[in-house]
Amino acid sequence: MCRPRILLPRFRSRRGVLTTHRLLLPPLRFLRRLLLPPLRLLHRVVAMADKPDPGPPQEERRPWEPPFDPSKPSTPISYPITTLDALESRSYFDSFHFPFNKASVPLPSSATGVLPARRRLLVCHDFKSGYRDDIWVQGGANPDAYAIWHWYLMDVFVYFSHYLVTLPPPCWTNAAHTHGVKVLGTFLTEWDEGTAICNTLLSSKTSAQMYAERLTELATAVGFDGWLVNMEVNLDLQQIDNLKEFIRHLSLTMHSSVPGSLVIWYDAVTVDGKLDWQDQLNEKNKPFFDLCDGIFVNYSWNEKYPEVSATVAGNRRFDVYMGIDVFGRNTYGGGQWNTNIALDLLKNDDVSAAIFAPGWVYETDQQPDFQTAQNRWWGLVEQSWGRLQSYPKLLPFYSNFDQGHGYHYSIEGLQVADDPWNNISCQGFQPLIYNFTNPSQTNVQAFINFKDASYSGGGNITAKGSLKDNTSFSTMLFFGELPLENLPVHILYSVKLVGNSILGLCLDLSSEINGRKSVLIINDVQTFSTVNHLTNKYDEIIYSQVKKTKMEVLADAAWIVYESSVKMSGYILTGIHVVGSNMRRPGMTESATSDGTKLENETVSTDGFSPYCASLGHITIRTSEQNLAFPPADSWITEGQHISWTSHSQETKAVSLKIAWKLKSGNTTSFMNYNIFVEKIAKDATSDRIYEVPSYLGIAKVETFYVSDLDVPSGITYLRFIIQVCGLDGACQELQESPAFVLAVEGQ
């Protein structure tokens, strides 16, 4: 989507935004065609200046480039297909890395059909040419890696790079699918190499169909939902019929193989074979639009083009995605912090939008920090476009608020790793975090906390500030569309409290017959009696009880897990809030705290405010029928493959291997992921085994995990790799009951 463009003069319109002067369009269009070939080289330089670090420098070797051999075992990576020969030969399926790259999270049933009949938002990734920190399938070591967590604002996510076949890394597909967002890969031809590729691809109708089928095979096998087709080359007129056949056949085979899938055409090549961006839907690109599911219109449109395009599209106006380049390159409104200007216009014209390169926030180091800037930028999108996704919709529902990166990692309250990490596959359902506060009563703000120990994953929601006596704060976490059936719904949540702070949940419920209702869930009667100022705010109060956890002996004692039950037949759960207040516990002084720690300025100030700090670690909602019973260890077949030993010294050696597992019978659809641990086992003089504390190795989203260069000290005779099964409700099997693979140490 980088292309040479002549920058047209801009003038103020009546709307007060920059638009192209119509009088200059005819001569400049002619000039653009005249200068297009020599400008191609110049554009590469301009693009580099406009967009910091758009890709690797020539001397940087990407991990999949020679001497990389995809057939040999190594740390699993995601990578593109760069040649037509590799696409035709299906060699990707013979790669050692292929099984690791399968997305494990399917789209929810509510998102598997056609897109809703309304204006939509497509987001095109384009982050530094793709395949950066997200290349490491099992996770990387960058706690500040780029990620997106505002999934509730989009319908379609495109993973883009400047390679022939861009396969989305499974982490993006897993995170997007969790939130009901479709994911597309990219098929791209550009420059002279792209022309040569098209000469082969479009040499015959049979050839066009064959390559379309190869792309469909890839999307189906890897688990994503379609393709963005971006042809940025000049074609011979006689190739156009075969290009149409390629698009038609790709759409046909995708729809047949993946119901609800999409093929989107990019506005570049015209029906007469010219590389001539139209910036609108018109007679020169509509023949391609008619053969697929939509068009991504180039981003140099003026304020009249969306309405014109909608008219041309007829009853398919929502399949027209008007491009917006966030870097602001010749984009209506200027992109960047003014991206919402273009969105507002498209909203008024009731057509869809395609946001290109939202990674601008990260790449240009917007201040004061990425988290703050990212939330602010997407907040502008939300203000303009509105919220598009709702959850929970289905049970079980589980969120630990993990964004897929952090500085430590916890499982059910136990911190198992204190190393920096990133893995977008670990994203749970992402909260909205709408803080509803009255400045005269509270300045408490909720935020994702990566610093302090989490209950699960790498983060938690922490609310911190000060509260006036006999007041509370409320923060919206989720907008839902969850019908509550006749069975009781069980709600579990973990909290960490500091001082006199208390924390509960509020459920928004709606019924066509009974209207709206708000239900407060709080920990116990004794606590609630000290905050009875809340009684008038809620229609019903439900008291939760402390739940004993499997790992409570090992878990951080500061985390408390509560459980409650709600039965609201005929209602729909429409919202989940976190609610907090301060209390005085019986027998405690004003400055006392629950755990012996102190808050800064913990005593009540003269203005009646007291400090507040509490954290929410996770939320689980399920029915009693969904209380998962894990298969016993002997229900699994485990094996080690590609086992390789190396000696580091006389004292240590290292082992690399692929661990694979599968159930002897049944399926694994009720499992969310697998935590991988290792026990290093030695023998003493009496031959009795000595077990070391299991060490956490990582997380697997598929039934295989690669262990790379694991240190094995002298004297260790066996390695026991434990595969801890985790359910969709966030519950994890006890380690001693989990399946395992035992490996004898070489030479012992």
From TrEMBL:
Domain named Cytosolic endo-beta-N-acetylglucosaminidase C-terminal: residues: 628-746
Localization annotation: Cytoplasm, Cytosol
A single GO BP: N-glycan processing
Enzyme Commission number: 3.2.1.96
InterPro entries (UniProt xref): ENGase, ENGase_C, TIM_ENGase
Region (Disordered): 49-76
Gene3D superfamilies associated with the record: Galactose-binding domain-like, Glycosidases
Domain Cytosolic endo-beta-N-acetylglucosaminidase TIM barrel intervals: 133-409
Signal peptide: none
Enzyme class: hydrolase
Ranges of biased composition (kind: Basic and acidic residues): 50-64
Major location (coarse): cytoplasm
Catalytic activity: an N(4)-(oligosaccharide-(1->3)-[oligosaccharide-(1->6)]-beta-D-Man-(1->4)-beta-D-GlcNAc-(1->4)-alpha-D-GlcNAc)-L-asparaginyl-[protein] + H2O = an oligosaccharide-(1->3)-[oligosaccharide-(1->6)]-beta-D-Man-(1->4)-D-GlcNAc + N(4)-(N-acetyl-beta-D-glucosaminyl)-L-asparaginyl-[protein]
GO cellular component: cytosol
Organism domain of life: Eukaryota
Keywords recorded for this protein, A-Z: Cytoplasm, Glycosidase, Hydrolase
GO terms for MF: mannosyl-glycoprotein endo-beta-N-acetylglucosaminidase activity
PANTHER family: CYTOSOLIC ENDO-BETA-N-ACETYLGLUCOSAMINIDASE, ENDO BETA N-ACETYLGLUCOSAMINIDASE
Its biological purpose: Endoglycosidase that releases N-glycans from glycoproteins by cleaving the beta-1,4-glycosidic bond in the N,N'-diacetylchitobiose core. Involved in the production of high-mannose type N-glycans during plant development and fruit maturation.
Family: Belongs to the glycosyl hydrolase 85 family.
Protein name: mannosyl-glycoprotein endo-beta-N-acetylglucosaminidase
Biological source species: Cocos nucifera (Coconut palm)
